[in-house]
Amino acid sequence: MITIYPNPASSVLYLSTGNNLITVNSLKVYSINSVLVYAINAILPSSYAINIDDFPQGAYTAILELSDGTRQVKEFIKQ
Fold it and tell me: Dihedral angle at the C-alpha atoms of 37, 43, 45, 46, nearest 10 degrees?
């Protein structure tokens, strides 16, 4: 299971798999208006930080594609 913290966040958002057997193959972050604001297509380490300083305040959805073929959707607030 992927953990996103802190939530709400102000400048940096952290992702953690909590498991070295599963990796994040891609990450896409969408604004509440369904606008893609961040994307990376790479194998991410078990802990990863995203600088969200330039994101406007509001609600966001992160879609993560995992190495086991599953997808997780997480929501967070940018303060």
Answer: 90
Which segments of 1-79 does DSSP mark as H helices, in order? Answer: none
Q: Is pLDDT larger for residue 71 or for residue 21?
A: 71
Classify residue 13 as exposed, middle or buried by CB count within 10 Å of its CB (0-12, 13-18, 19+): buried
The pLDDT tens digits for 13-60 are 999 988 778 889 999 999 999 999 999 998 877 889 999 999 999 999
Say how far apart CA 31 and CA 45 lie, in whole Å.
Answer: 24
- Tally the C-alpha atoms within 13 A of residue 4's C-alpha that lie toward its C-beta: 22
